[in-house]
Fold each of these.
Amino acid sequence: MSTVDRLRAAGCVFAEEEAALLEEAAASAEHLEQLVTQRVEGLPLEHVVGWAEFCGRRITITKGVFVPRHRTELLVDLATDLNPELVVDLCCGSGAIGAVLQHRLPKATVYAADIDPAAVACARKNLTNVFEGDLFDALPQDIRGHIDVVVANVPYVPTDDIRFMPPEARDFEARVALNGGPDGLDVLRRVAAQAAHWLKPGGHLMSETSSRQAHGALAAFTDAGLNARVVTSEDATAIVGSPPK
């Protein structure tokens, strides 16, 4: 059975494209067999080949780390449009957001942070200035009050909904990168509550959410004293807020 046929039999919708990527990543016929077996067994393609395409760039991805979704590119575009000098990629996972922003804004200083040691190790393969810890506590204190933009792609899946996620995410990505608490907004509320202390005057906090959670996410921002709005694209929803001037 060919690689394409094996992938198709395993339920891979884009079997031809995946086969080409696996063949590209393989160092030998034996290595290709290992990669195909991993994919057939359900390991996300990005974990198998070691990278994900995000905003037109290849981002290194290691096993167990959250795979960046294309819907998150909305946050990158919003942050880019603000042309910030100091950016923080909070709950950074692989550091995909920070890495793309560093490429787009070469004069900017980019920091990233995550609570998951595996994510931090992965992010350090994609950009510098990556810190391990719980939200803003991970960051250097000397940037407090000086940040232009915080991009916080926080976990926002309600705890009871994780079981309904595709197996590739549910079984192979770290639970801490998915679990947003009972209504999916626990981490977002914590970020919003602290943001004003870290942003400079006129700074912005932005976070991804789902369309059905947009009202609650907006409330999390406004309850924290931020002036906030909902921004949508064809397939993504984000909340953008700033402290009052």
Amino acid sequence: MLKLTDLCSFIMYTTPFHKEVIIIQLSERQREIVDIVQRLAPVTGDKIAEELGLSRPTLRSDLALLVMLGLVDAKPKVGYLPGRYPNYDSHIGSMLKKLTVADILSDPILISGDATAYDAVLMLFQQNTGTLMVTGEEQELIGIVTRKDLLKVMLGHTDLHSVPVTMAMTRRAQMTTLAPGDSLLEAISRLIRHQINCLPVLDEPCTSSAPIQGLVGRVTKTDIMNAILNLTEEKT
């Protein structure tokens, strides 16, 4: 029988469209956190940090992930308790199921299709991001370019100044996207299934508030972790 302290924990993301089991490998620190919660529950985040000799902010993302997986539960004004995995019957789990893409999306970072691959590399560093949305002459979304895409170009020893960003990008027809009404769990599932870090959010027909035709935002793994943190850090 699988135990909470085993190397792998299993979580099933359930959406209206499909079910799938995703195996997530826990780190050594995450397994230690689960063990501490089992031994000392109910236990505060500060006490867990003290047991590990670390600061509370260092553990925020680990605790958020463990709560999302159902390996640890967070109770308001009580602390952390052992969870039941996968567990979406808890307060945090119920809130996660209610969140949609519209609740967590962030502003897209745009680059013109007239730009070069070199321009794209500079923008990635300047904006501290891993993904750029490429726009066409009529301010429509025509593609998406990532650090991995640009690295492939660089490995060919090509002069990035002479390569249009459109040569490195993934075109819209091949892109995976989200809609504002999609669930948070659906967003997580697509990011993991396609092994990517960011998905554009498209709303067709486009709204008047959309800066780019049909493009209303993006969802990144950071957006998802921030949403989970917002649900958990005020509960303990």
